[in-house]
Design goal:
single chain, about 375 residues, alpha/beta, Aspartate Aminotransferase, domain 2, Aspartate Aminotransferase, domain 1, three-stranded antiparallel sheet, 12 helices, about 40% helix, globular
Length: about 375
């Protein structure tokens, strides 16, 4: 699904040098590379404040901790997503309220958000799935109208830009009250282990987030808040500093792959190529097809595997059907998508020969 070895070979000189500098300095915890990366990511995204942390799941937990929500508060979020967000919502003693997504983009449906708001609702938590930004202008309007917080999960969409009706733009993760991201190795901006970050434009929130991530300390051994230990490792920050300088190049490479897939598969019977929303750029963390039926999806997956082509299902089971998060509700669209989506390889090192082979294999299959 991705080729980190070839990417490393291409960036080897700079990455090896960056890691070697950390080894020689022995500043393994909170070394200068961490603040350098936070400043660089702030400049890249336009977020006034960036706080590095241990991973993307911690970023979500830190965001919820900073809001001081009463136990039992409701957080509206899509069921068609990875489990990390629902996991931390429940760990914090809060209630996930799962809602449907748009049938074409798979991004959270704004009308579904409005329909789900109750007196206990405190947060809207959109997920910028597959590489596009949700309709943040409308989401922020709903939040303002109902006095709600917005936490953006932008783990799959770093670099994606949203365009408002005014013509102004903003990066995914920088529009809500707090944004979060992950630097898991497979992400568009990935490190060589675990890592994450939090974005905010609010200085008070930034100070609080930074303190909570550091055992509740602003000053060493002075604990004003109950916090956790979640910091971005210096070696990972060194790797990310190198990769951040290539992020636009990575985005262009992924879009080139997506354009190739689009052109070759746009007329394939029984296949829906990804929809691109008008008010967001797409960074193609995943390239996801939708088949007409579950049976066809499973047959295609087997056909790809037989031809040594990897594929993944993001996601095979909706969150409201997972044992850990089960809710006895009906969400027909989400349930249908989980039965019909399949993601193809897409990464920065793909060449025309690989793309042609994948497309030919799909087109030669009886869909």
């Amino acid at each position: 699904m991705l080729d980190l070895q070839t990417q490393y070979s291409r960036l080897k000189t700079d990455i090896d040098s960056a890691i070697q500098n950390v080894l020689e300095s022995a500043a393994f915890i909170k070394g200068p590379e961490v603040s350098e990366f936070e400043k660089g990511l702030s400049k890249f995204t336009g977020a006034k404040f960036v706080i590095g942390c241990a991973n993307g799941t911690d970023a979500l937990q830190l965001a919820l901790m900073a809001l001081d929500l009463p136990r039992g508060s409701e957080v509206i979020t899509p069921s068609f997503s990875y489990a990390a967000l629902a996991e931390v919502i429940l760990l914090m003693g809060l209630v996930p309220v799962f809602v449907e997504v748009d049938p074409n983009t798979f991004l959270i449906d704004c009308q579904a958000i409005e329909n789900a708001i109750t007196p206990n609702t405190k947060v809207i938590a959109p997920v910028h799935l597959y590489g596009q930004t949700c309709d943040m202008e409308q989401i922020m309007a709903i939040a303002t109208k109902n006095n709600l917080f917005v936490i953006e999960d932008s783990a799959q969409a770093i670099g994606s830009k949203y365009t408002f009706t005014s013509g102004s733009t903003a990066h995914a993760g920088t529009i809500g009250h707090i944004g979060t991201t992950s630097f898991f190795p497979s992400k568009n901006l990935g490190c060589y282990g675990d890592g994450g970050a939090i974005f905010t434009q609010d200085e008070k929130l930034a100070v609080k987030l930074k303190s909570i991530a550091n055992h509740g300390q602003k000053v060493k051994y002075q604990h004003e808040l109950i916090g956790i230990n979640s910091r971005l490792d210096t070696i990972q920050a060194a790797v990310l500093n190198v990769k951040l300088s290539h992020l636009l190049e990575f985005e262009a490479a992924r879009n080139k792959c997506a354009d190739f897939y689009d052109f070759q598969l746009q007329n394939a019977i029984g296949v829906q190529i990804p929809s691109r929303v008008a008010n967001s750029t797409h960074v193609f963390h995943q390239y996801t097809l939708t088949l007409n039926s579950h049976a066809k999806r499973e047959q295609l997956k087997k056909h790809l595997t037989a031809n040594n082509i990897p594929s993944m299902i993001y996601y095979p089971t909706p969150l409201h059907h997972q044992k850990a998060y089960f809710q006895d509700i009906s969400m027909p669209l989400t349930e249908s998508l989980c039965q019909r989506v399949i993601s193809l390889p897409i990464h920065t090192e793909m060449d025309a020969e690989q793309l042609e082979f994948i497309c030919e294999t799909i087109l030669n299959f009886d869909l």
